[in-house]
């Protein structure tokens, strides 16, 4: 018996500690949050774009020229280039918040999330300025060349089609510098490749001596020098009719990351700050109201066990909130909805146990025995009925865009945590009331409804 | 109700939102006074953005629906709406979805619904594998699915009526709602079937009572719990509906309906069906 009391106290304390953690890490609840220790500042709730306001951009990458086994790798390079650019405060100014996320979605798409950026134009411009740098070589002899006949009957061979892509792209660029041709004073952009890039470039130049190597910028041919000898040091020069300003800007942009393949914007979503904040306030209000209603219902209908369940439910809620902070889970409106539903489901396990306990009581068992039987018999129903919810959550998580994932994650977490909290916490708490005996008052406390049944 | 829902489906049809068919939605709020809808309408139609639909929202705002827009077109639209900056406005939200994104989502939604249904049949058949007397275990799964259909069709019908009168559009959350109802409703049916399973297996009943009596007794034992559970879930959903974010409002009401009919059907549809199947089997 003492053991059970200690266990209960420990659980209550743990719950309180977790609750305190959630409270302390929330800026809005602490007046002098700024003066708090750094530890508490590390765990804010991470809010999705629909609650914080911001922009979501989806890009389709042009992967048609890339060998299919290479796509994943190249997408990663594309992601890194965009991320480097977006998180560089030098070039992106207000963008330099580390919360910007860039992820590969569905194999060949790139999703960019910019919390706090509510001007989509600004966001799109920053990304569209990322240069696309490609190196191409002459197509092998015998490849059919495309030719055009213009209205005057003149035949022009399409130069663009004569080159084929190589693996060498802006991905392997280490540094770009501005130089001037010593004879003509024309500006040039000098490129230095990284280790892999140097190897690739050496190979390309070795295999194409006497031929043209084409340098493409943003899909346009900028320079096509003839290779005279193998270049082993990984240096190349683009000398294609730049004005000094153009060259300067290009160097700057190249240094902040060049894209390995073209990207095409296919979806934009911007949520204004006020809209996000309203949704957040509404979400919090709905969650609090829902929780209070359920607690009220539990206590009115199930009396003492209901009160215990309400305490166990509170612990469930603080555990969930703490997990949201610790994992961290990005909260969206749908995510909050999932959490709210999981509160309802968490109650279900308790209700099943209590109803079962009541039946056993009616069957004439003592309070203690009825409780034990109620728990063990209800467990199978609870487990089976929750598995279907877990299945749904898993499939939704797989299916999901970030919106749905948020919902599936909070719902799934809620179901799993509720299984734990209802079974362990409620059980331990109730077991303490064993000493209460089998008189009329305990029987009243453990039965249910608004009237006194005997 | 199922009939009504199906009729609503054929009469009103499902309005696919931009999540599925692609398109753009721009919401703006004017600082002082908004220009009249007719004026905006005529200027917007001249922008070569395809057909543009504008709806007033609140006292100072408009929602503009169009095909999906590039950033240049988006800027042009904003410029036009503000009459080159004369009418000050703020953009509340902008959402443009390319048709390819929509198609992929539609495909994924279908796969998800099929997968969830299959997984649930398999799970029920598995959970009731030991119960094959007098009704075989896969029939439980089958009946659960019939009940599920009922539970899903009614909220969808409700949604269609909402979309007809209040302009709700079929979006990603709609699919999520349908799938969640599947999960919640089946969990409710399982609890009752579980009770039937327990009573069938318990010693007192072996060889004695007939099947329909056992089902009846199981129902009697579990309906209070079913109603209590639904009540709590519906309580939180109502909180979500009344106080929650605008974006999840239809979602909440659909789920609440799903929960309500889910409970109703577990008691008044699934169990009677079970008895019916058993009687039909006996006759054969």
Protein model, in words:
The complex is a heterodimer of chains A (454) and B (284). Chain A is an alpha+beta fold and 454 residues long. Chain A folds into 2 domains: 2-47 and 272-446, Multidrug efflux transporter AcrB transmembrane fold, CATH 1.20.1640.10; 52-269, Gyrase A, domain 2 (2-Layer Sandwich), CATH 3.30.1360. Helix content of chain A is 53%, strand content 18%. Chain A has helices at residues 2-24, 38-41, 49-52, 71-86, 89-92, 120-128, 195-207, 244-255, 273-326, 333-362, 367-399, 402-432, 440-446, and strands spanning 46-47, 54-61, 101-105, 109-115, 133-138, 147-149, 155-157, 163-169, 173-180, 187-193, 213-217, 220-223, 235-238, 263-271, 330-331. In chain A, the strands form 5 sheets. Chain A has a 4-stranded antiparallel β-sheet. Chain A has a 4-stranded antiparallel β-sheet with strand order 8-5-11-12, covered by helices on one side. In chain A, a hairpin with a 5-residue loop joins strand 6 and strand 7. In chain A, helix 1 (2-24) runs antiparallel to helix 9, helix 9 crosses helix 10 and helix 11 packs antiparallel against helix 12 (402-432). The radius of gyration of chain A is 32 Å and the shape is elongated. Residues 90-98 and 450-454 of chain A have low confidence and may be disordered. Chain B is an alpha+beta fold. Chain B has 2 domains: 23-97, 2-Layer Sandwich (Alpha-Beta Plaits); 100-283, Multidrug efflux transporter AcrB transmembrane domain (Multidrug efflux transporter AcrB transmembrane fold, Up-down Bundle). Helices cover 68% and strands 10% of the residues of chain B. Chain B has a 4-stranded antiparallel β-sheet with strand order 2-3-1-4. In chain B, strand 2 and strand 3 form a beta hairpin. In chain B, helix 7 runs antiparallel to helix 8 (211-243). The longest helix of chain B is centred in the last third of the chain and has 35 residues, at 249-283. The model of chain B has no long low-confidence stretch (mean pLDDT 80).
């Amino acid at each position: 018996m003492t053991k059970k009391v200690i266990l209960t106290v420990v659980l209550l304390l743990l719950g309180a500690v977790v609750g305190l953690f959630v409270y302390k890490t929330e800026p809005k609840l602490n007046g002098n949050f700024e003066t708090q220790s750094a530890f508490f500042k590390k765990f804010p709730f991470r809010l999705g774009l629909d609650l914080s306001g911001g922009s979501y951009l989806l890009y389709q990458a042009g992967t048609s020229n890339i060998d299919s086994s290479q796509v994943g790798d190249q997408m990663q390079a594309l992601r890194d280039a965009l991320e480097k650019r977006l998180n560089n405060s030098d070039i992106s100014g207000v963008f330099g918040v580390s919360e910007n996320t860039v992820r590969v979605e569905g194999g060949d798409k790139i999703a960019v999330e910019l919390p706090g950026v509510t001007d989509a134009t600004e966001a799109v411009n920053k990304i569209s300025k990322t240069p696309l740098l490609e190196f191409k070589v002459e197509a092998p002899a015998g490849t059919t060349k495309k030719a055009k006949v213009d209205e005057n009957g003149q035949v022009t061979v399409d130069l663009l089609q004569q080159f084929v892509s190589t693996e060498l792209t802006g991905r392997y660029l280490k540094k770009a510098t501005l130089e001037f041709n010593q004879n003509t004073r024309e500006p040039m952009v000098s490129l230095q490749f990284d280790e892999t890039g140097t190897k690739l470039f050496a190979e390309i130049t070795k295999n194409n001596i006497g031929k043209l190597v084409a340098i493409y910028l943003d899909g346009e041919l900028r320079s096509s020098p003839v290779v005279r000898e193998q270049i082993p040091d990984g240096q190349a020069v683009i000398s294609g009719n730049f004005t000094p300003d153009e060259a300067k800007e290009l160097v700057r942009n190249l240094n902040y990351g060049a894209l390995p393949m073209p990207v095409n914007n296919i979806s934009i979503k911007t949520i204004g700050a006020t809209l996000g904040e309203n949704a957040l306030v509404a979400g919090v209000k709905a969650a609090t109201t829902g929780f209070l209603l359920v607690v009220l219902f539990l206590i009115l209908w199930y009396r003492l066990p209901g009160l215990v369940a309400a305490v166990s439910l509170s612990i469930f809620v603080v555990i969930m909130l703490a997990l949201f902070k610790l994992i961290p889970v990005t909260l969206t409106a749908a995510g909050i909805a999932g959490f709210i539903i999981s509160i309802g489901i968490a109650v279900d396990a308790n209700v099943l146990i209590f109803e079962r306990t009541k039946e056993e009581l009616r069957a004439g068992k003592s309070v203690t025995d009825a409780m034990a039987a109620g728990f063990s018999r209800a467990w199978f129903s609870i487990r089976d009925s929750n598995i279907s919810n877990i299945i749904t959550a898993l499939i939704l998580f797989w299916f999901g865009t970030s919106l749905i994932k948020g919902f599936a994650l909070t719902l799934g977490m809620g179901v799993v945590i509720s299984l734990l909290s209802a079974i362990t916490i409620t059980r331990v708490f109730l077991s303490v009331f064993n000493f209460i005996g089998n008189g009329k008052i305990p029987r009243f406390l453990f039965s249910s409804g608004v009237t006194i049944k005997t | 109700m199922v009939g009504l829902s199906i009729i609503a489906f054929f009469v009103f049809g499902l309005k696919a939102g931009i999540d599925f068919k692609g398109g753009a939605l721009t919401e703006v709020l004017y600082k002082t006074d908004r220009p009249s809808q007719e004026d905006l309408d005529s200027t917007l139609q001249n922008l070569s953005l395809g057909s543009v639909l504008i709806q007033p929202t609140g006292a100072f705002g408009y929602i503009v629906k169009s095909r999906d827009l590039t950033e240049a077109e988006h800027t042009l639209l904003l410029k036009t709406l503000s009459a080159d900056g004369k009418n000050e406005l703020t953009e509340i939200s902008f959402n443009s979805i390319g048709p390819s994104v929509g198609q992929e989502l539609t495909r994924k939604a279908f796969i998800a619904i099929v997968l969830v249904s299959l997984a649930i049949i398999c799970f029920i058949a598995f959970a009731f594998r030991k119960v094959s007397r007098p009704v075989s275990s896969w029939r439980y799964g089958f009946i659960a699915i019939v009940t599920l259909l009922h539970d899903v069709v009614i909220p969808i019908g409700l949604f269609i009526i909402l979309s007809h009168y209040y302009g709700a559009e079929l979006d990603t959350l709609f699919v999520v709602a349908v799938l969640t109802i599947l999960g919640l409703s089946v969990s409710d049916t399982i609890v009752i079937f579980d009770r039937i399973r327990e009573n069938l297996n318990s010693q007192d009943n072996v060889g004695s009572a007939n099947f329909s009596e056992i089902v009846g007794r199981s129902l009697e034992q579990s309906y209070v719990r079913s109603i209590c559970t639904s009540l709590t879930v519906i309580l939180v959903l109502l909180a979500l509906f009344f106080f929650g974010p605008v974006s999840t409002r239809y979602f909440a009401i659909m789920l609440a309906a799903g929960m309500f009919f889910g409970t109703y059907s577990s008691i008044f549809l699934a169990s009677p069906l079970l008895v019916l199947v058993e009687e039909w089997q006996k006759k054969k």
